[in-house]
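Case study B.
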Amino acid sequence: SIKDSVKLCNFNCSQSQGITVQAIDDSRVLLIALKIDAGSFQEFRCDKDLVLGLDLESLSKILKQGNNEEYLTLMAEDSPDNLMAVFEDKKKDRISEFSLKLMDIDSDVLTIDDMETDCTITLPAYEFAKIAKDMKTLSESLKIVVTKDSVKFNAEGQIGTGSVILKPHTDMDKPEESVKIELNSPVALTFGAKYLNDIVKATSLSSTVTIKLTDKSPALFEYKLPSGYLRYYLAPKFDD
Amino acid sequence: DEKQPSIKTFFMPE
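Model:
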Protein backbone atom coordinates (compact mmCIF):
# COMPACT_ATOMS: atom_id res chain seq x y z
CA SER A 1 0.00 0.00 0.00
CA ILE A 2 2.79 2.47 0.75
CA LYS A 3 5.54 1.51 -1.67
CA ASP A 4 4.47 4.11 -4.24
CA SER A 5 4.80 6.84 -1.60
CA VAL A 6 8.05 5.84 0.07
CA LYS A 7 10.94 3.75 -1.19
CA LEU A 8 13.03 3.22 1.93
CA CYS A 9 11.78 2.90 5.49
CA ASN A 10 12.72 1.60 8.88
CA PHE A 11 10.63 -1.19 10.42
CA ASN A 12 10.93 -0.96 14.20
CA CYS A 13 10.40 -4.27 15.95
CA SER A 14 9.78 -4.72 19.67
CA GLN A 15 8.10 -7.33 21.84
CA SER A 16 5.61 -4.83 23.31
CA GLN A 17 4.78 -2.76 20.20
CA GLY A 18 5.04 -5.36 17.47
CA ILE A 19 6.12 -3.72 14.22
CA THR A 20 5.89 0.05 13.76
CA VAL A 21 6.86 2.17 10.80
CA GLN A 22 6.97 5.93 10.39
CA ALA A 23 7.84 7.30 6.97
CA ILE A 24 7.52 10.55 5.04
CA ASP A 25 6.91 10.49 1.29
CA ASP A 26 9.56 11.88 -1.04
CA SER A 27 7.71 15.16 -1.57
CA ARG A 28 7.42 15.65 2.23
CA VAL A 29 3.66 16.12 2.17
CA LEU A 30 2.45 12.77 3.48
CA LEU A 31 3.40 11.11 6.77
CA ILE A 32 2.72 7.40 7.05
CA ALA A 33 2.39 5.58 10.39
CA LEU A 34 1.93 1.82 10.39
CA LYS A 35 1.42 -0.35 13.46
CA ILE A 36 1.10 -4.12 13.30
CA ASP A 37 0.57 -5.41 16.83
CA ALA A 38 2.36 -8.55 17.98
CA GLY A 39 -1.08 -10.17 18.27
CA SER A 40 -1.50 -9.93 14.48
CA PHE A 41 1.00 -12.71 14.03
CA GLN A 42 0.55 -16.38 14.77
CA GLU A 43 3.85 -16.18 16.56
CA PHE A 44 5.88 -13.06 17.33
CA ARG A 45 9.19 -13.06 19.17
CA CYS A 46 11.53 -10.11 19.57
CA ASP A 47 14.26 -10.63 22.17
CA LYS A 48 15.90 -7.30 21.46
CA ASP A 49 14.46 -4.13 19.89
CA LEU A 50 15.48 -4.03 16.26
CA VAL A 51 15.34 -1.58 13.38
CA LEU A 52 15.10 -3.20 9.97
CA GLY A 53 15.89 -0.78 7.15
CA LEU A 54 14.01 -2.01 4.11
CA ASP A 55 13.73 -1.07 0.46
CA LEU A 56 9.99 -1.55 -0.09
CA GLU A 57 10.34 -2.34 -3.78
CA SER A 58 12.77 -5.13 -2.92
CA LEU A 59 10.54 -6.35 -0.06
CA SER A 60 7.61 -6.43 -2.44
CA LYS A 61 9.62 -8.55 -4.91
CA ILE A 62 10.36 -11.07 -2.15
CA LEU A 63 6.77 -11.14 -0.86
CA LYS A 64 5.46 -11.82 -4.36
CA GLN A 65 7.48 -15.06 -4.42
CA GLY A 66 5.02 -16.63 -2.01
CA ASN A 67 1.48 -17.80 -2.65
CA ASN A 68 -1.42 -16.51 -0.60
CA GLU A 69 -2.11 -19.80 1.16
CA GLU A 70 1.50 -20.27 2.21
CA TYR A 71 2.81 -19.57 5.69
CA LEU A 72 5.31 -16.74 5.85
CA THR A 73 8.01 -16.49 8.50
CA LEU A 74 10.22 -13.41 8.69
CA MET A 75 13.44 -13.69 10.69
CA ALA A 76 16.34 -11.41 11.58
CA GLU A 77 19.35 -11.92 13.83
CA ASP A 78 20.31 -9.54 16.65
CA SER A 79 22.51 -7.30 14.50
CA PRO A 80 21.21 -8.26 11.13
CA ASP A 81 22.53 -7.61 7.63
CA ASN A 82 19.65 -9.54 6.10
CA LEU A 83 15.98 -10.28 6.60
CA MET A 84 15.09 -13.91 5.97
CA ALA A 85 11.71 -14.77 4.48
CA VAL A 86 10.54 -18.39 4.46
CA PHE A 87 7.38 -19.51 2.69
CA GLU A 88 5.94 -22.90 3.55
CA ASP A 89 3.15 -24.79 1.85
CA LYS A 90 2.46 -27.42 4.47
CA LYS A 91 0.24 -29.51 2.19
CA LYS A 92 2.75 -29.77 -0.59
CA ASP A 93 5.81 -29.88 1.62
CA ARG A 94 7.20 -26.97 -0.32
CA ILE A 95 9.59 -24.54 1.33
CA SER A 96 11.12 -21.49 -0.31
CA GLU A 97 13.65 -19.25 1.37
CA PHE A 98 14.76 -15.73 0.51
CA SER A 99 17.16 -13.30 2.03
CA LEU A 100 16.76 -9.55 1.64
CA LYS A 101 19.65 -7.15 2.22
CA LEU A 102 18.96 -4.59 4.94
CA MET A 103 19.95 -0.94 4.65
CA ASP A 104 21.01 1.85 6.99
CA ILE A 105 18.30 4.43 6.52
CA ASP A 106 18.60 7.90 7.97
CA SER A 107 15.12 9.17 8.67
CA ASP A 108 13.66 11.95 10.77
CA VAL A 109 11.16 10.71 13.31
CA LEU A 110 8.36 13.13 14.13
CA THR A 111 6.31 13.27 17.30
CA ILE A 112 2.63 12.78 16.61
CA ASP A 113 0.47 13.92 19.51
CA ASP A 114 -3.20 13.12 19.77
CA MET A 115 -4.80 16.01 17.99
CA GLU A 116 -8.01 17.83 18.83
CA THR A 117 -10.21 17.34 15.81
CA ASP A 118 -12.96 19.51 14.38
CA CYS A 119 -14.68 16.54 12.79
CA THR A 120 -14.41 12.81 12.29
CA ILE A 121 -15.94 11.06 9.29
CA THR A 122 -16.17 7.30 8.85
CA LEU A 123 -17.19 5.92 5.48
CA PRO A 124 -16.75 2.77 3.38
CA ALA A 125 -13.14 2.59 2.18
CA TYR A 126 -14.17 1.74 -1.41
CA GLU A 127 -16.49 4.78 -1.47
CA PHE A 128 -13.66 7.13 -0.52
CA ALA A 129 -11.35 5.45 -3.06
CA LYS A 130 -13.87 5.98 -5.86
CA ILE A 131 -14.33 9.65 -4.97
CA ALA A 132 -10.55 10.24 -4.79
CA LYS A 133 -9.95 8.50 -8.15
CA ASP A 134 -12.89 10.12 -9.96
CA MET A 135 -12.19 13.64 -8.72
CA LYS A 136 -8.51 13.44 -9.67
CA THR A 137 -9.57 13.31 -13.31
CA LEU A 138 -11.14 16.77 -12.88
CA SER A 139 -8.65 18.63 -10.72
CA GLU A 140 -5.36 18.30 -8.94
CA SER A 141 -7.01 19.54 -5.73
CA LEU A 142 -9.95 18.16 -3.79
CA LYS A 143 -11.82 20.26 -1.27
CA ILE A 144 -13.55 18.50 1.61
CA VAL A 145 -16.31 20.49 3.28
CA VAL A 146 -17.95 19.05 6.40
CA THR A 147 -21.10 20.27 8.10
CA LYS A 148 -23.27 18.39 10.58
CA ASP A 149 -25.58 17.25 7.76
CA SER A 150 -23.09 16.23 5.10
CA VAL A 151 -19.58 15.84 3.80
CA LYS A 152 -18.96 17.35 0.39
CA PHE A 153 -16.03 16.50 -1.89
CA ASN A 154 -15.53 19.25 -4.41
CA ALA A 155 -13.22 19.49 -7.44
CA GLU A 156 -12.75 22.51 -9.68
CA GLY A 157 -10.72 21.96 -12.81
CA GLN A 158 -10.08 23.31 -16.29
CA ILE A 159 -12.81 21.22 -17.94
CA GLY A 160 -15.39 21.95 -15.28
CA THR A 161 -16.39 21.14 -11.74
CA GLY A 162 -17.74 18.19 -9.81
CA SER A 163 -18.92 17.35 -6.34
CA VAL A 164 -20.05 14.34 -4.35
CA ILE A 165 -22.16 14.85 -1.25
CA LEU A 166 -22.52 12.12 1.34
CA LYS A 167 -25.11 12.34 4.12
CA PRO A 168 -24.73 10.39 7.34
CA HIS A 169 -26.71 7.18 7.50
CA THR A 170 -26.62 3.95 9.45
CA ASP A 171 -26.84 0.60 7.71
CA MET A 172 -28.05 -1.86 10.35
CA ASP A 173 -27.35 -4.97 8.26
CA LYS A 174 -23.95 -3.87 7.00
CA PRO A 175 -22.47 -1.42 9.55
CA GLU A 176 -19.37 -1.00 7.37
CA GLU A 177 -21.59 0.62 4.72
CA SER A 178 -22.60 3.41 7.12
CA VAL A 179 -21.47 7.01 6.86
CA LYS A 180 -20.85 8.66 10.21
CA ILE A 181 -20.07 12.32 10.91
CA GLU A 182 -19.00 13.55 14.34
CA LEU A 183 -18.71 17.31 14.32
CA ASN A 184 -17.29 19.80 16.79
CA SER A 185 -17.10 22.59 14.25
CA PRO A 186 -17.58 22.76 10.47
CA VAL A 187 -14.43 22.53 8.41
CA ALA A 188 -13.33 23.08 4.81
CA LEU A 189 -9.89 21.92 3.70
CA THR A 190 -8.20 21.37 0.34
CA PHE A 191 -5.84 18.48 -0.40
CA GLY A 192 -3.66 17.41 -3.28
CA ALA A 193 -5.59 14.81 -5.31
CA LYS A 194 -2.35 12.96 -6.05
CA TYR A 195 -1.76 12.26 -2.36
CA LEU A 196 -5.34 11.20 -1.75
CA ASN A 197 -4.85 8.69 -4.56
CA ASP A 198 -1.70 7.42 -2.85
CA ILE A 199 -3.68 7.02 0.38
CA VAL A 200 -6.53 5.01 -1.16
CA LYS A 201 -4.05 2.33 -2.21
CA ALA A 202 -4.70 1.03 1.33
CA THR A 203 -8.38 0.41 0.51
CA SER A 204 -8.10 -3.38 0.45
CA LEU A 205 -6.78 -3.41 4.03
CA SER A 206 -9.98 -2.27 5.71
CA SER A 207 -13.71 -2.03 4.97
CA THR A 208 -13.90 1.52 6.34
CA VAL A 209 -11.70 4.59 6.47
CA THR A 210 -11.85 7.21 9.22
CA ILE A 211 -10.95 10.77 8.30
CA LYS A 212 -10.17 13.34 11.00
CA LEU A 213 -10.09 16.95 9.93
CA THR A 214 -9.06 20.08 11.78
CA ASP A 215 -8.82 23.60 10.42
CA LYS A 216 -5.32 24.48 9.14
CA SER A 217 -3.95 21.10 10.28
CA PRO A 218 -2.98 17.85 8.59
CA ALA A 219 -5.83 15.45 7.96
CA LEU A 220 -5.63 11.96 9.39
CA PHE A 221 -6.81 9.07 7.22
CA GLU A 222 -6.93 5.83 9.19
CA TYR A 223 -7.37 2.28 7.94
CA LYS A 224 -7.84 -0.04 10.89
CA LEU A 225 -6.08 -3.39 10.65
CA PRO A 226 -7.31 -6.50 12.50
CA SER A 227 -4.78 -5.58 15.20
CA GLY A 228 -3.11 -2.27 14.44
CA TYR A 229 -3.54 0.51 11.89
CA LEU A 230 -2.23 2.26 8.82
CA ARG A 231 -2.48 6.04 9.25
CA TYR A 232 -1.73 8.77 6.76
CA TYR A 233 -1.26 12.40 7.79
CA LEU A 234 -1.68 14.74 4.85
CA ALA A 235 -0.82 18.44 4.96
CA PRO A 236 -3.62 20.59 3.52
CA LYS A 237 -3.12 23.15 0.77
CA PHE A 238 -3.55 26.82 1.55
CA ASP A 239 -4.56 29.78 -0.58
CA ASP A 240 -1.46 31.75 -1.40
CA ASP B 1 -3.09 29.98 -6.14
CA GLU B 2 -2.62 27.22 -3.60
CA LYS B 3 0.46 26.47 -1.55
CA GLN B 4 1.36 22.98 -0.44
CA PRO B 5 3.26 23.09 2.86
CA SER B 6 5.49 20.25 4.01
CA ILE B 7 4.06 17.85 6.58
CA LYS B 8 7.21 18.48 8.62
CA THR B 9 6.02 21.99 9.47
CA PHE B 10 3.17 20.50 11.54
CA PHE B 11 5.02 18.04 13.74
CA MET B 12 7.99 18.36 16.09
CA PRO B 13 11.08 16.22 15.49
CA GLU B 14 11.40 13.48 18.10
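The mean pLDDT of chain A is 95. The remaining cases will be described in the next quarterly update.
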